[in-house]
């Protein structure tokens, strides 16, 4: 049976370890920052994993999952490789979205096989992450000879592997940052406005609407756009901005920036140029 070590016992490291543990696999060892609370939490979730120093965490395991923050992955690889902690043919995977496989080059130079496997899912905490991971798409980047086992690993973790070329990795990750983090921020702003309008349960309004809007954009692109900017209803837009200027002045700049984006896409979707100009002039009147 495969034996696994985890470096970085946080949200993703804890989630993947839990998924493997639920499959009956052995998570043999874990390394984190000394005295870290996330290391304690990981030990409670995966009690069989031995807590080890970074330099020896990979001893005797087949697979190492590097789940540290993005900026630490390279240093982690360098430190373990420099301590002769990599064995020939050992499989190493990191879960960072923006990095390709180059960041694990010290491991590859020491004889390890390397892959970058990024789950397109949000992991708010280890248990929620493990629960919602099934069916997620994963971006897999590896040399041709390593794609097979990397894809198999993702399937074992309940995911759907998709090969992403190394040179496309940064653009891929920028897309997901917009689709996930920026979307959460925009929905949070909508939630604040609804609470301001006296709506006690904003999720009852936003849940179905945001889900349908997100799926529309993801599947149909600009053809899914609706609303006042898409229709060219400049009077409605002016009303929103006048109200925000009074009730939520801090939201005016973001509303204008988002409306600029909607307007660009509305024109791509076929909005009449004259109507688009009227909306643009309305927005211009509220730029700071
Ligand atoms: N969260 C997501 O939604 C998500 C989704 C997909 C991919 N990812 C990727 O997965 C990776 C991990 O993200 P995360 O959200 O799980 O981060 P996280 O919750 O902050 O976990 C990172 C873990 O690495 C530990 N760590 C920090 N520096 C270390 C070092 N020098 N050596 C060993 N361990 C170290 C942290 O310890 P402390 O707790 O002491 O800081 C923490 O346990 C990142 O590359 C991220 O881009 C995240």
Quick rundown:
Helix content is 53%, strand content 13%.
Describe the structure.
This protein has 288 residues and is an alpha/beta fold. The chain has two domains: 3-164, 3-Layer(aba) Sandwich (Rossmann fold), CATH 3.40.50.720; 171-284. 53% of the residues lie in helices and 13% in strands. It contains twelve helices and eight strands. Strands 3-2-1-4-5-6-7-8 form an eight-stranded mixed beta sheet. Helix 6 links the parallel strand 7 and strand 8 (160-163). The longest helix is centred in the middle third of the chain and has 28 residues, at 169-196. 33% of the residues are buried.
Fraction of residues in helices?
Answer: 40-55%
For the sheet with most strands, the description reads: 8 strands, mixed
Regions with pLDDT < 50 over 5+ consecutive residues? none
Class from secondary-structure proportions:
alpha/beta
Number of strands: 8
- Strand order, main sheet: write it out: 3-2-1-4-5-6-7-8
Overall number of structural domains = 2
Question: Which features does this protein show?
Answer:
alpha/beta, 12 helices, binds NADP nicotinamide-adenine-dinucleotide phosphate, DUF2520, 2 domains, Ketopantoate reductase PanG, Rossmann fold, TM1727-like_C_sf, OxRdtase/DH_put_Rossmann_dom, 288 residues
């Amino acid at each position: 049976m495969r034996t696994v070590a985890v470096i970085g016992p946080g949200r993703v490291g804890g989630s993947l370890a839990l998924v493997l543990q639920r499959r009956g696999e052995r998570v043999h060892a874990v390394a984190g920052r000394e005295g870290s609370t996330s290391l304690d939490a990981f030990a409670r979730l995966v009690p069989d994993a031995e807590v080890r120093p970074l330099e020896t965490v990979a001893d005797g395991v087949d697979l190492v999952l590097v789940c540290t923050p993005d900026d630490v992955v390279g240093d982690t690889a360098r430190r373990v490789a420099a301590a002769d902690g990599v064995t020939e043919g050992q499989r190493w995977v990191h879960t960072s979205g923006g990095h390709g496989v180059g960041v694990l080059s010290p491991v590859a130079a020491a004889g390890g096989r390397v892959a970058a496997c990024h789950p397109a899912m949000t992991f708010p905490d280890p248990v929620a992450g493990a629960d919602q991971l099934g069916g997620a798409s994963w971006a897999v980047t590896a040399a041709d000879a390593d794609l097979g086992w990397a894809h198999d690993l993702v399937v074992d973790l309940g995911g759907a592997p998709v090969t992403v070329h190394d040179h496309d990795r940064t653009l891929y990750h920028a897309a997901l940052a917009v689709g996930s983090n920026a979307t959460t921020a925009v929905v949070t702003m909508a939630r604040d406005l609804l609470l301001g309008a006296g709506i006690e349960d904003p999720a009852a309004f936003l849940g179905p609407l945001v889900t349908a809007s997100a799926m529309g954009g993801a599947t149909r692109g600009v053809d899914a756009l609706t609303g006042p900017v898409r229709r060219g209803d400049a009077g409605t837009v002016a009303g929103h901005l006048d109200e925000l200027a009074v009730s939520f002045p801090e939201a005016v700049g973001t509303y204008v920036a988002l409306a600029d984006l909607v307007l660009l896409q509305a024109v791509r979707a076929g909005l009449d140029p004259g109507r688009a100009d009227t909306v643009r002039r309305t927005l211009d009147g509220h730029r700071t």
